[in-house]
Amino acid sequence: MDFLNEEQIAWRDTVARVMEREVGCEYVRRCDMERQYPYEAYEKIARLGWLRLLIPEEQGGDGGTIFDYALMCEGLARYGFDFATAFMVSTFTAMNIVKYGSPAQREQYLPRFMRGDIRFSISISEPSAGSDAANTCTRAEISGDAWLIRGQKLWCSGAAANNTVIAMLVRTDKDARKHHGLSVLLVPNDSPGLDIRRLPTLARRATGTTEIFADDARVPAGNLLGEAGMGWEIITDHLELERIAVSAAYVGNAQQAVSDALRYAQERVQFDRPIFEFQVIRHLIADMQTAVDAARLLVYRAASMASQGLSCSREVSMAKLFASETLQTVTRQGMQILGGHSMLPEADMERYFREGMQSTIGGGTSQIQRTIIAKSLRL
Ligand SMILES: Cc1cc2nc3c(=O)[nH]c(=O)nc-3n(C[C@H](O)[C@H](O)[C@H](O)COP(=O)(O)OP(=O)(O)OC[C@H]3O[C@@H](n4cnc5c(N)ncnc54)[C@H](O)[C@@H]3O)c2cc1C
Fold first, then answer.
1. Is residue 343 part of a domain?
2. Domain limit, last residue, from 207, 230, 253
3. What is the DSSP letter of 205?
4. Predicted confidence band of residue 1 (pLDDT cuts 50, 70, 90)
């Protein structure tokens, strides 16, 4: 049974075809091995117009639904979650400008973004603001016609890529209580006073994740998104879309891990028979595919509710929790099925496994998702 309508099936198949013919697994693998941002693929996707999928028609986009967007994220992650991240951070962060940007900001950023000339990153985390994301210490003060930013941000994915504008959570009112007094600034990554360093992480090797040092970094006064003090509201809204996107991408990557494991199990002969003939292996694969299907249904439910404008933070957290843990579990099981071959980059499973290890941390950890779900269940 397929829950998708004809248009959605056609869109899903288009994304799959482009990934297979225009991008390919070898390219994605090479970007990971060489820790190279996927610039060529980004240009191709931009030329296809996919960056404008979620942007409303009146702002020059295609006005697609969050469900369409989830299908795209699922497809883009087929050969690796990290690859899809390059597109996801840019596209879900762009929506903050759509929702909270002034007409001048939309005019300044959105056409260039949709053409692929600039991209976006989101910078919430800091050394002492991880799960406790509102514990932001980076300060921004207005000085004449500019904001001066001072502090350190951490884990900002994609921020070192060419022509990136970082949506950065900063504290603009040091006297306001924790979640108040926060604002979001649009900070081009070549702003004076900014030092961005890529980190040698286990996962996210192509898109890259970074630490950012701001030493009186300067951005124009007009780069404040929304109003001063609206930072937490913007970030809460942002995280809902981010979690739908990444959950869909976990499913896409997890499906590929199961398909790879199945193919290998049918081809690999030991004791004169394909290892798929051993019940312990075939049952493992049955469990893996069942988990991926269940994760997909949770993601589609959350994306469908969000598309209808329904309140769905519980459903989004359930999708994030289950899809990330599924990616982590099936890639670990895939490693076991591929045996020694799983250790080589050519087998791809070790890359999927590394992404799986990251998935239960980035975008809010599994523990935080459980906390959100539990809070929503309380009578
Ligand atoms: C590869 C990568 C890319 C990332 N990209 C970005 C990005 O682009 N932008 C960005 O802003 N951030 C990004 N992050 C940061 C990510 O969102 C944080 O790592 C995440 O929110 C967890 O924060 P932390 O790592 O400081 O862990 P901590 O918050 O220190 O947590 C450590 C452990 O304690 C647990 N814990 C903490 N508080 C609680 C609690 N209240 N109840 C129960 N358990 C708790 C956590 O679940 C975790 O297991 C990225 C991280 C990684 C690893």
1. yes
2. 230
3. T
4. low
